[in-house]
Design brief:
Elements (H helix, E strand, L loop, with lengths): L15 E7 L6 H15 L3 E7 L6 H11 L3 E6 L5 H11 L4 E4 L11 H9 L4 E9 L4 H17 L8 E8 H8 L8 H8 L3 E8 L11 H15 L2 H29 L8 H33 L6 E5 L6
Parallel strand pairs: 1-2, 1-4, 2-3, 5-7
Antiparallel strand pairs: 3-8, 4-6, 5-6
Helix pairs in contact: 5-8, 6-7, 9-10
């Protein structure tokens, strides 16, 4: 998402926050912390690292708690239960105070060393610099195909231009982030919400590595649910599909009855119930699909109307930038 006019910044950011949602990452979190510290110390800008434990069942919380105890630049946040990646990330962004915020997962598939290049793009005048994957190591062919298909489908049916082949890995300026955080919708697809916010945005192509350790926290089922949330949050296409299906089968039914009437006058009858039952079952199935699609949207309206908090914090340790 390029912008023809950019107001360049002739300075470095005043401060940097790094938002790291975590879930069962005991095998990799120490290496993540080490690599983040190395690049942040090299850049030499005041910074904070915010680890949010999304209800982990392993020793992730004790590890990030020890980071915050021994390092004043680290804040450790523990959620009361597993709320989900997008909500843990929202919590980390809510806690951030930096002029720019780096979003990165704990699995080290997205290299923190790209922060230096992102800051250079920020100095050119961009408000969002998002990582765009040119290769994906360590992922199955089916997952790669699903990701490829998803981004191209949503780009066709969405009202906004969601960049293809991207994740949440990105650097966001505080002005754009404040707008993002004002959006408290319960069905969250943050990379799509960032695209909706606008401001000058640009990609940073990179090679996505294999997980450093552990197993993926986004199996096919979770990926499918996230994709469905994205589609229903940024497009009315499923509802339009239901309308088109209704129109299509109405036309088919009308033509069918016309044919039956003509054949009746010609003295031709088709006795039997097999075709009749087939038609009833098919139309009944279509109606249930349509009702299911409408129900998904109604359910989202219901959840939003409850106005429950997006997440619940159980404990916080550390306050890098002070109150």
């Amino acid at each position: 998402m390029q912008n023809c006019y950019l107001e360049k910044r002739d300075r470095l950011p005043k401060s940097i926050s790094v938002a790291v949602p975590c879930y069962n990452e005991e095998e990799v979190i120490s290496e993540t912390y080490k690599r983040l510290k190395a690049i942040l110390d090299k850049i030499n800008i005041p910074y904070e690292i915010i680890f949010v434990d999304d209800g982990s069942k392993d020793s992730t919380w004790s590890l990030i708690s020890s980071f915050s105890k021994n390092d004043k630049t680290v804040k450790a946040v523990k959620l009361a239960r597993n709320h989900g990646h997008q909500f843990a990330l929202t919590c980390a962004l809510d806690q951030s105070k930096g002029e720019v915020v780096l979003i990165i997962d704990a699995d080290l598939q997205d290299p923190p060393e790209l922060l230096d290049e992102m800051i250079k793009k920020w100095q050119e005048g961009y408000y969002v610099i998002y990582g765009q994957r040119i290769a994906r190591d360590g992922e199955s062919l089916s997952k790669k195909f699903f990701a490829f298909a998803f981004y191209r489908v949503i780009s066709k049916i969405s009202k906004i231009n969601i960049p293809q082949d991207t994740g949440d890995f990105r650097l966001i300026d505080r002005k754009a982030l404040d707008v993002l955080l004002s959006m408290r919708e319960t069905q969250r697809f943050i990379r799509g919400m960032v695209a909706w916010v606008g401001f000058p945005q640009t990609p940073l192509p990179y090679h996505r590595a294999e997980r450093f350790a552990g197993t993926t926290k986004y199996p096919f089922k979770k990926s499918l649910l996230l994709a469905f949330d994205a589609i229903t949050s940024f497009s009315y296409a499923p509802l339009r599909l239901a309308t088109y299906l209704g129109m299509f089968f109405s036309v088919i039914s009308f033509l069918y009855f016309m044919v039956v009437i003509v054949l009746k006058f010609m003295g031709i009858n088709f006795p039997g119930y097999t075709s009749l039952m087939g038609a009833i079952l098919m139309l009944g199935g279509i109606q249930l699909i349509v009702l299911g699609i409408i129900g998904e949207y109604v359910g989202r309206i219901f959840e939003q109307g409850q106005k429950r908090p997006l997440y619940i914090i159980q404990d916080i340790k550390g306050e890098p930038f002070g109150e």
